[in-house]
Design a protein that fits this description.
The protein has 239 residues and is of the alpha+beta class. It is 30% helix and 33% strand. The chain is built from eight helices and ten strands. The strands form three sheets. The chain has a six-stranded antiparallel sheet. The chain is elongated and about 65 Å long.
């Protein structure tokens, strides 16, 4: 199974890393023992320990004396206590945010977007698709629909580096005052799987959000698909 020309411990750690990233070993799951890994790859326990040490140094696993090695929860944690944008979320998590614009142009409003924006289905809106990354790793795919009025205010801006929130408030005095969220689990379609580098059918978190400004005017409707192995939402409630 191992290939010549590369250190054996690197190949073992690569295989384990891939299994973790694909969800074969979930959060707090115990990895195969040192003996099991040694038998699987035909390597010594010293080689296996070097591979495990690499993953521990990367923050992917933790080890318990006498119990074995376990997958660490390395997902970005986000709260739902105030409105934030993607850049703020990533910086709070200690990650470097980046975006790639995959599509930006007009289209007839699909039914769900039309209902959220309170326009007739088929009304011309502007759709913006972006892949969102943290430290260079794909974390989310955004599909955003904006009324033409707000979309034209974004023209000439670098939407790979700036957020809609920031542009509208800084340049036009249009604050995003509140948002309506719906969170649900969906399975990755072929397109989403390709963008997010996950298998087709992988569970994703879909955040559907309508954002409002003064006068209860709707700025945009967005569906963000998060990798569930990379992002988790947390709520703390008081009674």
């Amino acid at each position: 199974m191992l290939k010549p020309g590369r250190p054996r411990h690197e190949q073992v750690s690569d295989w384990l890393r891939e299994q973790i990233e694909q969800g074969v070993f979930g959060v707090d799951a115990r990895l195969p023992s040192e003996n099991q890994l040694g038998e699987r790859f035909g390597v010594s326990r010293i080689t296996v320990r070097r591979a495990l040490q690499t993953l521990e140094n990367e923050g992917l696993i933790y080890r318990r004396q006498g119990l074995g090695s376990f997958v660490r929860d390395h997902r970005v944690r986000q709260g739902l206590v105030r409105l934030t944008d993607f850049v703020e979320d990533m910086m709070q998590a200690g990650l470097t945010p980046a975006s790639r614009v995959l599509f930006h142009g007009p289209e007839p409003a699909p039914p769900e977007a039309a209902a959220a924006l309170e326009v007739e289905p088929g009304t011309t809106v502007v759709r913006l698709d972006r892949l969102r990354l943290g430290d260079g790793v794909p974390l989310a795919f955004d599909r955003t629909w904006l009324p033409v009025f707000y979309a034209q205010l974004l023209e000439g801006h670098d939407l790979t580096a700036e957020t809609i929130y920031h542009i509208l408030e800084r340049d036009y005095g249009i604050p995003v005052l509140r948002g309506r969220y719906r969170i649900e689990a969906v399975n990755a379609t072929e397109d989403l799987a390709d963008h997010l580098d996950v298998p087709v059918g992988r569970a994703l978190l879909r955040i559907s959000r309508t954002s409002f400004t003064e006068g209860d005017r709707r700025i945009y409707f967005q569906q963000r698909y998060y990798r569930s192995d990379r992002v988790a939402y947390e709520l703390e409630l008081a009674r």
